[in-house]
Amino acid sequence: MPMPLQFATDPDTALPLHVVASDDLEDWAASQNGTVGTWVKAAGFRAGLGEVLLVPDGNGAPVLAVAGYGTADQRARTRFALAGAAASLPEGSYRLVGGPDGATLDEECLGWLLAGYAFDRYRAQSGAKARLVAPEGVDASRLEAIAAGEALTRDLINTPASDMGPDQLEDAAAGLAAEFGARFEVTSGEDLLKKNFPMIHAVGRASARAPRLLDLAWGDAGPMLTLVGKGVCFDTGGLNIKPAVSMGLMKKDMGGAAAVLGLARMIMALELPLRLRVLVPAVENSIAGDAFRPQDILTARNGLTVEINNTDAEGRLVLADALAYAAETPSDLTVSMATLTGAARVAVGPDIAPFYVDDDAAAAAIAGAAARVADPVWRMPFHAPYETMIEPGVADLDNAPKGGFAGSITAALFLRRFAGAAPRYTHFDIYGWQPAAAPARPKGGVGQGTRALLDALPELLDL
């Protein structure tokens, strides 16, 4: 099992870890005793980003460690810069001496925790084994709660569809509800039709694993926050089947569900003073004799008709029913998160989560929080002139407008039609995947936008 993503609790025996920037190395070495300075020079240590050095006493036992912090330019281009050192240090406990402070210190400490993450379900492996003593002024329990929520998101995304179908996603959500005393309900199979979730049913009915809507509720007082996450556990594309190159990563198409469940875990662990509701339409978009077809017209929960022009644009369909259901209960903030469009990746790449919201103050709050916690997002427009692109004429809406332009925007506009009058409805079009290993972020599933939202909630909801 991987080590828990927690801080060390033995400050008296932890090895001092000096964090030294490249530009400060000479002055730092001069401030140490002659033996330390000589050792650093002899070792050729340059304090490069992620570079580490253990300094021994006369018997060879380490008396301190040094972590290179690179240059300001290098740090500006690297999130969780200190996490590289965590991965390079030997197992043990360390306490920081010098280095960053304020919000940057929080970021680096969280990065250190996340460097300990490893997905070991199918192969024995571990993350960084060096554990950090929480520095003075750092809210250790908060960072541990955030790390645990992020680990949940990563685990859910990393698990292949063979072991993470709608039923297992239900189990994960039910387990989370049980852990924090939340209420939990499931509507599945033919009951989706009886209870008026026709598009969730249509998308998932061809799978051997029944589609379902997961409904988690927590908290009895405070403002209402509703999170809706796309839970397409695998997406073949349906009858508009994906080519192999596009289908290879579709185990991550439930990344929106994984993200909102991870965020929900953070919120409940931190006992934020709000009422939380999480809705996850969990389906598998498969091919069978009863699969929904191109040119079918579906009627959504709120009565809008939708012409199906591509069965591979299924995520917005299941989200539409869930959003319409959410809109039936007043909420102070409704957020949808989904691995929805390739257009978003073309626009901003895999590392940035585009988000949509009409309210400028809400947008500023989310963007400001994202900068503080190193969780990059970028505001995109609900561009009203593009509304005509999702209106096919034969039905109220088109799930896949032709032409290929503004794909992320038209998908967001489609979803907004179902969010009702929810104040500050916000949609995140995330990627949910780290394509190459980086400090604190191994290749694989990753949360996006969740830490920014968590940090922005006090401003968004007046907490």
UniProtKB/TrEMBL annotation:
It holds the Pfam family Peptidase_M17. Keywords: Aminopeptidase, Hydrolase, Manganese, Protease. GO terms for biological process: proteolysis. CDD domains: Peptidase_M17 (cd00433). GO terms for cellular component: cytoplasm. One of its GO terms (molecular function) is metalloaminopeptidase activity. InterPro entries: Leucine_aapep/pepB, Macro_dom-like, Peptidase_M17_C, Peptidase_M17_N_1. The keyword Cytoplasm does not apply. Belongs to the peptidase M17 family. This is Cytosol aminopeptidase family protein. It comes from Pseudooceanicola batsensis (strain ATCC BAA-863 / DSM 15984 / KCTC 12145 / HTCC2597).
